[in-house]
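Dear support,

We are seeing what looks like truncated structure output for some complexes. This example has two components. We would appreciate it if you could run it in full and send us the complete token output so we can diff it against ours.
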Amino acid sequence: MRIIESVSEMQQQAGAWHREGKTICLVPTMGYLHSGHQALMRTAREGTDVVVASIFVNPTQFGPGEDFERYPRDLERDTRLAEQAGVDVIFAPRPREMYPEGFQTYIEVSEVTLPLCGQKRPGHFRGVTTVVTKLFNIVKPHRAIFGEKDFQQLVTIRRMVRDLNMEVEIVAHPIVRESDGLAMSSRNTYLNPEQRQVALCLSQSLETAQGMIDNGERNGEVILKKVREIVEARAGARIDYAQLAQPETLEATGALDGPCLLALAVFVGGVRLIDNRILYPAK
Amino acid sequence: MRIIESVSEMQQQAGAWHREGKTICLVPTMGYLHSGHQALMRTAREGTDVVVASIFVNPTQFGPGEDFERYPRDLERDTRLAEQAGVDVIFAPRPREMYPEGFQTYIEVSEVTLPLCGQKRPGHFRGVTTVVTKLFNIVKPHRAIFGEKDFQQLVTIRRMVRDLNMEVEIVAHPIVRESDGLAMSSRNTYLNPEQRQVALCLSQSLETAQGMIDNGERNGEVILKKVREIVEARAGARIDYAQLAQPETLEATGALDGPCLLALAVFVGGVRLIDNRILYPAK
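Here is the complete output from our reference environment:
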């Protein structure tokens, strides 16, 4: 397993792979890997010559007062977990090299970044699209894998790739969950055992919502009300948002006449967790 | 000479050239070619396998009330002139293909786009950087040539390329002038014979400025005052801006202790012309 920390070394290596006709698959991460990341890496492994995982806690996607400083980091452990999952190269650039003195260029995707997390975390998606563009230009992947837990991120990246004619195939990976339903996230490590139990309200309310639809409910407001009730019944849980949205444009919708994204952000103690589910009305 | 109008055809062709180990040089233009463009194309021709000239009047870099609709277009003539200058392929995409329904992604370069034309034409550079990024992703050039007449554009593109780790070498081409000094521009065709004479005030005032420096003047304000006087002495000429700036950051400067950009935008009749010159204090 090779670890590359230099941007120019990574870029040269990627160029060499291209000249050799090798295909590259990128799994962009912020590190502190868990089984969810490993599932993405195993998917990346299938049907490509080289798997690169990037590990970079990207400062530009954190807002003031967010958890950039305390975001968990452990490159040694990450290296082990990535190797287990079939990664060939870890690209772990230093922040000073990614954002040198005078840096001033950002990618802005407009409409799809406005609602949901975009409304709650101004500047977040600008940081994401910018770093992903940089990673694409450095690692030159033919394909890149993104988890559906960050559903708005996935939609935003897809939009950017299409709009800017980037030749990268974006592959979505389903949310990977703990056995009790909690969506895997590096931020789960912030939770104490009690909060860990409270955090189940996210996945449970999403499941309840699908159950309501299966039982014929078609009123979005009724479903969102129930979701909010389930979350707010837990001591220490506070809704940041609960929204129904069209899964491609992310426009708010109340109509449940086709697949519909139910997206959820909840503070558990001081920890902000997100989860989502595509709700399917029965045929 | 081949003309490609389809984005996917251009992208596939560029991919094929890469696999064959061929180098690509791009000359991005808005068409209505003149000898200035041809000089860029001849420079492109040197030391590359394939020269692609793009011809695209890019709607996103025109503001409301600007001359997008009346910007001169003549693809047949352009084809002839490009062929003369050694271009292999003209890429002339249709606007609907470059900006399809739902398009919403833009590249924003901040500081260097704030002064000069950026201040006068809000959104202009965002349109430029976005379309250039798209062209880079479609044509996949190893090198791209930009004229120094659009000096702020050149600085902005360089900054973007560095910030986003694009592997494209940006080559600057000196301003190409008519024999009487007028900087070549497709917009010169808007000028009637009288205005054509008035327009000489741009290059003449730039030359006067260098003359003043050669004679020991080091006060930027004195030089700018003289430039403004020369322009405003001409009936029908109106200064849009006249600025001295540091040539890399484009920050306003009054100090003439090193190379300094003198940038000028002047309305002649309804036509907005720009010109610039790097002033060099004598050693």
